[in-house]
Design goal:
Layout (H helix, E strand, L loop, with lengths): L26 E5 L3 E5 L12 E5 L1 E3 L3 E6 L2 E12 L2 E7 L9 E5 L2 E8 L4 E6 L3 H11 L17 H4 L7 E4 L11 H10 L2 E7 L22 E5 L1 H12 L4 E4 H10 L10 E5 L14 E5 L6 H10 L1 H13 L10 E5 L5
Parallel strand pairs: 1-17, 3-12, 3-14, 4-11, 14-16
Antiparallel strand pairs: 1-2, 5-6, 6-7, 7-10, 8-9, 9-10, 12-13, 13-15, 16-17
Helix pairs in contact: 6-7
């Protein structure tokens, strides 16, 4: 499909710079047969007892690092773990980095360029691994804010703001942003409603920020991201679905992992590996019935995904309404609730 079909003009002032407080006070656009302006804490009214809410429990790490190669400055953003001591990363300036170069972040924290890829990608082998590497990132890294929020410059407040209430498994370099809207009070209300809550893990990579630079969607290559669906979670979701409950994905990351792990027969299976699933209009959804997500970039893979899920014309109308009504866009912005096309 032509990427121009997913383009729209977004006023700069609608891009949220900070989240609202409390988080569940953000606006929620319910996109069904009609458009309803709500707030996130109204979510319980749209879900039914027996539905299963599936969120992503990945935890964002401070993956943006500044160091030096000799006297020259180097900036890297980690985006995919390769091993306990090794990560793929986007580097600037990447062209001057050579295999074997050592990047020094502090006197006692370094990494060696182990591989060079395309479009500024390198593989870095750090001088420590596992928990020790995570501690070094916490001490010396910055939260990797998207470039459209304050030009990517995170501050101390973002260490809490850019983390969901579900965050547990360290490894993401971007937040699963639909999850940012949840509070303990909202979770308690969902429990009281009889909604079952489960989590899966998809470590979101920095590739999610990359623009689609091709003219046709068939030519776009997705960056792979690592995910886990445990046998226990798969069994519980399948049981809820078999009993008539709907699968409600919190965010496109949860949806992409669930669809990657579901067979043509509609059965969710345990999953532990990488997925580069790219969902565009024409995709036949196998498992997810309802999607809660934020408002996405024009020409982005995420806007293509929601257009596939709820219908392109419906999403274009919804985004026009959202912009005219002053909804806040992107990671710290408002949310929408979508039903699968023909199910609204």
């Amino acid at each position: 499909m032509n990427v121009d079909l997913f383009d729209f003009e977004l006023p700069r002032e609608l891009i949220a710079e900070r989240p609202v407080s409390p988080r569940d006070a953000a606006r929620l656009l319910h996109i069904g047969e009609a458009l309803e302006d709500c707030v996130v804490r109204d979510l319980t009214g749209f879900l039914r007892p027996g539905d299963v809410l599936v969120s992503n429990d990945t935890r964002v790490i401070p993956a943006r690092l500044f160091g030096k190669r000799g006297e020259a400055g180097v900036e890297v953003t980690l985006h995919q773990r390769v091993a306990l001591n090794s990560w793929k990363a986007f580097a600037r300036p990447a062209k001057k980095l050579k295999l074997g170069d050592v990047v020094r972040f502090t006197d006692g924290f370094t990494a060696t360029v182990a591989e060079k890829g395309e479009a500024g990608e390198v593989t870095l082998a750090f001088d420590r691994s596992g928990d020790e590497l995570m501690l070094a990132l916490e001490a010396h890294g910055r939260m990797p804010l998207p470039p459209y929020i304050r030009k990517g410059e995170a501050d101390e407040a973002d260490r809490a703001d850019y983390q969901t209430v579900f965050a547990r498994e360290k490894g993401a370099v971007a937040a699963p942003t639909a999850g940012l809207h949840f509070t303990p009070e909202l979770l308690a209300a969902l429990d009281a409603r009889g909604v079952k809550r489960l989590t899966v893990t998809l470590h979101v990579g920095a590739g999610t920020f990359l623009p689609v630079k091709v003219d046709d969607t068939k030519d776009h290559k997705m960056h792979a991201e690592c995910g886990v669906v445990t046998p226990e979670i798969a069994d519980a979701i399948n049981a809820a679905k078999a009993a008539g409950g709907r699968v409600v994905a919190v965010g496109t990351t949860s949806l992409r992992l669930l669809e990657s792990a579901t067979g043509e027969d509609g059965v969710l299976r345990p999953f532990n590996g990488a997925t580069d699933i790219f969902i565009t209009p024409g995709y036949r959804f196998r498992l997810v019935d309802v999607l809660m997500t934020n408002f996405h970039l024009p020409r982005s893979t995420l806007f293509m995904l929601v257009s596939a899920f709820a219908g392109m014309e419906r999403m274009k109308r919804a985004y026009e309404h959202a912009m005219a009504s002053g909804y806040r866009f992107y990671s710290y912005g408002d949310a929408c609730l979508l039903h699968r096309e023909n199910d609204a």
